[in-house]
Amino acid sequence: MENEKDTHNEHSKLLPKQSTGSITRRNVIISDSEVEDHCFSTSVEIAILLFFFAKVLSDLLMTNFLEFVTCKNVYHYNNSVCTDPISPYIENLVQPIVANVTMVRTLTEAFFPSLFVLLVGPWSDKNGRKPFLLLSLFGLSLSYAFWGFLSVIPNIRPELFLLASIPVVLTGGPCTVFVLGYCYVCDVTTIDERVLRMAFLQFVYSIANLFGALSLPQLFKLLVHFQYTSIFFISSGLLMLAVIFVSSCLSETIIVQEDQGTKFFQLEHIEELFAVCFKERPFHGRIIVLLICVGLAITVFVNQGESSLVYLSLRKLFGWQLEDFSFYASCAMIFNCTGGLVGIYFFISVLEYPVMPTAVAVAFCRVIQAAINATASQGYYFYISSVIGSMIYMLGALSRLEISKVIPQQEVGKVMAFISFLEAICPIAAAPLYTIIYDLTFETHPNAMYWLSTVLCMIPVLFLIIVVTLQYLQKDYRYSGMDPLEVQ
Q1: Which of 19, 199, 437, 460 is the most buried if burial means most Cβ atoms within 10 Å?
Q2: pLDDT score, position 31
Q3: 323: helix, coil or strand?
C-alpha cells in the first residue's frame, strides 16, 4: 500500500491543479493493476510509429509517381518511356513541373496547419491531448486515400493531386501529431525519464523511416498492378489503425475542467501562447527558450528544404533510381537510429554530459554533413555524411528536454505548440527558396543547394553557444520544473 501511495504521489505532481468547479477526470497515470491489464495505455509511440511508417511509405514514392504522371499525362509519352529508368531528356523535361507541384503541396500543408497548431497547444493543455490527435491522424488517412482514388483517374494532371492536401489543411496535419506526441510524453514522465522517452520518439521516427525505405521496393515487386494506388491505400489503412489505437487504447493525460472555456476557435488561446513564450523569466530564461526554439526551427527549415529535392538531386548527380535511393535512405535511417538513441543514452545517461554543450556538438555535425553533400562527387560521399549527420537526431530531444526544465508543466503544451508553429512555417519559405536554387543549378551543379544548408546550419550552432554561455554565467542556478519566476 505504501509503495502504491508513493507512486501515486509521485505521478500526481504531473497533474494540473484541480479547480473548485465541476471536473471530469481522465486517467493521467495508470495504476499498477491497470498497467498489467492495459500495458499500452501511455504508449503514444505506437501511434507515432504507425503514423511515420504510413507517411514515409507514400512520401518516398510521390516524386517518382508525379514524374510518371507528368511524363504520361502532360507530355503524352507511353508507359515504357515514363517508367524507370527514364532518359535524361525526359528527366529534364518533367522535373520543373514535379518540383513546383511538390513545392505547392509543401507550402499548403505547412501554412494552414501552422496556424492550426497555435490553437491546438493551449486548447489541449485544458481539454486533453486525444481529441486533436485523433482528428489529425484521421485527416492524414483521408489525404492518402484521396491520393489513391485520384491515381486511378486516367489522364489526370499532376496539379490535381493537390486536392488531396485539403484534409491535412482542415485537421492540422503532421505538425499537430508532433506537438501532441511531445506533450503526451511530457505529461506521463518525470524530468529524469523524459530525455530517454523523447529520444525514443526520435528512434521511432528513424525506425519508421527505415522500415518504409526497406519495404517500398519489396511492395513494388509484390504489387503487379496498381502499384502506386495500392501503396497510397496501405498508408491510409495504417493511419486508420493509429486512429483506432489512440481511440481505444491510449489514456487521456489531462483533467478536463468543465467550468472553463473549452471552445477551440478563441483568440485567447493564441494570446496565452505568445504570452507564455515571451514572458520575462529570471536567469535569462526567456532568451534561452527563444534561442532554442529558433535554432530548432532553422534546423527544420534546412531539413524541409532538402527533403523535397534530395531524390531529384541524387537522380541528376549520380543517375540513381528508386531502388538506389531506397537503399541509401535505409542506410541513413540505420545510422540515425543508432546515432540518435545510442548517442543520448551514452552521452547523457551514462557519461552524464551537460545537455546543451552536447547539443552544440550535435548541431555542428549537421554543418559538416551539409558541407560534404555540397562537395560530393561520388555517391559514397552521401553515405559518409549520413554517418556524421546521424547525431542531429539527438538535437530535437535535447532541446525539448532543456525547455521542459525551464518552464512549468502547465505551460508545456503552449511552448511545444510554439516550437511546432515555427517548424511548420519553415517549409513556407524553405520550399520555394530551395526549389528556386535547384531550378537554377540542377543542370550544372545539382548539389549547390547544400551550400545554403551549410551556411544556415551555422546559425543554430551560434545560438546554442550563446545558451551555453548564459548558463555558465548563471552556473549556480539549476532549473527546476517549476516556474522560474517563483525563484525570485
Answers
A1: 460
A2: 37
A3: helix
Give, to the nearest 10 degrees, the angle between helix 449-473 and helix 355-374: 170
Identify whether the C-beta of residue 262 lies closer than 8 Å to the C-beta of residue 53. Answer: no
DSSP string covering 207-254: HHHHHHHHHHHHHHHH--SSHHHHHHHHHHHHHHHHHHHHHHTPPP-S
* Across 183-187, 348-352, 470-474, least confident range: 348-352
Q: Return the amino acid letter for 389.
A: G
* Residues found in the chain: 488
Mean pLDDT of all residues in the chain?
Answer: 79
Q: Give the DSSP per-residue string, 385-417.
A: HHHHHGGGHHHHHHHHHHHHHHS-GGGHHHHHH
Yes or no: say if 70 and 225 are a contact pair by the CB < 8 Å rule: no
Residue 158: per-residue pLDDT: 92
* Close Cβ partners of 137 (under 8 Å, ≥ 6 residues apart): 47, 51, 177, 239, 242, 243, 246
More confident residue, 103 or 460: 460
Among 5-14, 109-118, 263-272, the range with the most confident prediction by mean pLDDT is 109-118
Which letter does DSSP use for residue 319 in this model? -
CA dist 440 → 67, 312, 449 (Å): 19, 14, 10
Calpha distance 286→296 (Å, rounded): 16
Task: Return the closest-CA partner of residue 50 out of 174, 226, 151, 167.
Answer: 174
Q: Domain limits of the chain?
A: 38-250+264-477
The domain made up of 38-250+264-477 is a member of CATH 3.50.50.60: no
19: three-class secondary structure by DSSP: coil
Read off the DSSP letter of residue 18.
P
pLDDT digits (tens, 9 = 90+) for 258-274: 555 556 656 676 777 78
> Are the CB atoms for 411 and 272 separated by under 8 Å?
no
The per-residue pLDDT for range 273-293, each reduced to its tens digit, is: 788 878 887 777 788 889 999
User: Which one-letter amino acid corresponds to residue 50?
Assistant: L
